[in-house]
Amino acid sequence: MELLLTLLVCLAVGSLILAIGAQVNREEQVQERLSSYIENHIQGEDEKEKTRINLRQILEKISRVFASRSYTQKVQYDLLQAGIPLKGEEYLTIWGGLALVVPPLCWVLTFNLPLAVLMLILGAVVPKLYLQSRIDSRRHRLNQQLGDALTVMANALRAGFSFQQAMDTVCRELPAPISTEFGLALREINLGANTEEALLNMGERVGSDDLDMVISAVLIQRQAGGNLAQILDNIAGTIRERARIKGQIKTLTAQGRTSGLVIGCMPAGLLFLLLIINPHYMSAMLDSSLGYILLGAAFGSELIGAFIISKMVKIDF
Fold first, then answer.
1. Quick one: pLDDT band at residue 256, thresholds 50, 70, 90?
2. CATH code linked to domain 138-240
């Protein structure tokens, strides 16, 4: 009986030891698998980071060609207004690559001349249109936020805050892009620039008439005195009223703008579509001098019509 109990105890102890060993081995295997996964993940991230660094270095080397050009500064100014984190020479390099590299590559791969010409036009036009669209969109969003920013600043001034503290309140409580611009102005002030210079630089970066009005009022108040909180409240009401009128005008002119866009783009788009799908269909137009004359007249009429429509729907106030 005692021998049986001894054997049972030994068996139980051995089973426990084996179970503990198996669990330890399992944990070691899990740790090894996790370690290998982490190492592979880190190596993959390192390889991706090296690829990004290599692409960045290539872009920087190519963009040095444009670094000393005068128009690069103008492009850099537009990029600041658009909120695009690129240097002027980098943007010009990307633009040149789309306009000069993609069309020949398309021609080599497809031997379709109309498609290559279309890619050339898109590569030359789309980056500029995208940049201008980003500038207009960012400026519109900032103008929409400006009334709220002035209200926040006026309330902060009434609470006893200084003008810089009121600007910091805007940075903390409002979203981008207005918080970004006020943050840059505050950073300039903290680095030694006076408030007038920082505000004027912010006005140049944004290019907004509403913000220029605010900056002019603040500069005049700092020289002549007055209740700045009340001034900011009055300007905020004016800006909100102007935004309401702009929205009404945009709604009333939406049909004309859409019609001009469709009428202007449809003939050119249809021409390139036919040239790509069935070039022989347009051969009668492209193989005769009369066809080129008609195409030139149509293109000139398109430009004149687009100019007239833009003048009709664009209202300055």
1. confident
2. 1.20.81
